[in-house]
Amino acid sequence: MTRPAHLVPAAALARGSAPASGPTALDPDRPGRPGRRGRTARRGPGAGAGRARGELPALAVLLAATAALYLWDLSASGWANSFYAAAVKAGSESWTAWFFGSLDPESFITVDKPPASLWVMGLSARLFGFSSWSLLAPQALEGVLAVGTLYAAVRRWHGPRAGLLAGAALALTPAAALMFRFDNPDALLVLLMTVAAYLVVRALEHASWRWLALAGVAIGFAFLTKMLQGFLVLPAFGLVYLLAAPTGLGRRVLHLLGAAAAVVVAAGWWVLLVTFWPGTAPYIGGSTDGSVMDLVLGYNGLGRILGGGGGGGGGMSGGATGSSFGGAATWQRLFSSEFGNEISWLLPAALVALVFGLALTWRAPRTDRTRASFVLWGGWLLVSGGVFAYMEGTVHPYYTVALAPAVAALVAIGGQLLWTRRDRLSGRVGLGLLVTAATVWGFVLLQRNDTYLVLSWLVLLVGVLAAAGLVITPVRMRRVAVLLVLSGVLAGGAGTASYAVATAATPHSGSIPTVGPAAAGAGGGFGGMSGMPGAAGRTEGSEGSTAALTELLQGAGTRWSAAVSGSQSAASLMLSSGTAVMAMGGWSDDPTPTLAQFQAYVAAGEVHYLVAGGGGTGTGGRGGDGTVSEVTTWVAQTFASSTVDGYTVYDLTRPVGGGDAA
Predict the structure, then answer these.
(1) What tens digit of pLDDT does each residue of 67-112 get?
(2) CA 317, CA 211: separation in Å to the nearest integer?
(3) Most buried pick, 170, 271, 382, 475, via CB within 10 A?
């Protein structure tokens, strides 16, 4: 007689076995439909059982250690990315700027991303005052929440050990240690996508359209964090629900349609409000026409994938070389240079786990949870990783932090599955290959840095011996096998852990930070006007070489103290002077303001100075847009200038010869 699914041992469920007939693996009550009884059984081996002894203390240690790693000496990075720091400061002073994600408190132009991450940091700055700590602490706490959420998602079906291992692997990913201590949008993006994955897991347990709709809401807000990148997990989420939800095909399709509607509503409300804003709205940075949809489809959409056009998207194509950009569009991108240092430490092991996981559960029932896990996390990894590897437009290594939850989950779930099958040759070989993949590739990455030469050989030696031991050790020698697994975990995780700790111990600034001990301040990216405070990551209370310029702007007394070419330069001046500065041309040569618009601002007495010179336009060296050139040419011909701290400053209240500027 076949036992009900809730009486099947957890190890059997982990191996992918299930009753040959009768209720499905996800629902012991009725085949193909969620039941009303047996809630504990439906929740699976990880969540259905009570808490294991020591589980809560272990979880507390994991979260506390993650918080320490991400919060320790956090303010050493100062404003980190001054571009986003200026927008947070603007949002702390103006609710309008907060809502739009404007770069300046007078809302001339927005940043080139939607504002969800700025909302969180802006609220923190309003509550605690604007400082490096209030700016970056929300990012670090989002990292702690992401680790806890991943633990919960993996634990529900695969037990506490797998959950703890997944959480630790995420926390110790160098890209995570970098971005959860930085003010880019990626921290909130990763948290929201991980929350959405947890909600999909809950939805799969009993085909709940409510949990699935909540997942759609989370993805909608991921869109409001970094636009289309938040949608990269949708194919995996949709496929796993269509495949494994314990209800009929028609209901599965209807539930997915409802979740899609939730995504549209959660992502679209802000787009609609901005599009039909009744008053004067700021220019949408990164767009060619000031509209959100142009930003979605152009600069932050097809411009990123295909290169060329799309607002300023063509300014930095995938053909650029060096660690700041992607280099050639190929799968090797994820393993090379800075990309490899940030995300690839456990990537080979995750791929091994995915292959073995799908192979071992291939013939399992449709609703098998273990296979569903590999489809969920594996689909996330393959789709997102494929896009990052082959996109032709602007791509930076830190984007890959979005792969970290999937990599961590696959390694943990795959390791747990193979451990339960160690009585078979396939399980022992799989464990050996998993450890080998992590340690050998960790050795290769550590060899790139002279600091870790000794550690690299130790990792290789311990890892290879542990892998070989796992293959040949008899099953009855369980204690030896446990010792070998622990040795393999330590060896496989030593490289990523060392780089994560080194990354957290290093201050970072600029627009393209890097990981590891070699970063040493790791500015990188576009710095704005050289010499301006904040251009390379100003720390609180530091004095730049532009004290006279700062004092001049503080006494301007106009809506915008000055106008300057480029968002980075404007951000630097705003952070140093505490005044609103007009960012002509935005971040990516945006066609704003036109000459006529700027002349109207000057005639109304809303801009006091135009600051020029001192190191470029602040738009990444790509040169000013035609409209900005027209403005600066007109200003140079019309107004008196002086030199302040090495910069040419035009006084827009003093026409040449005392004539009328208009």
Answers:
(1) 999 999 999 999 999 999 999 999 999 999 999 999 999 999 999 9
(2) 39
(3) 170
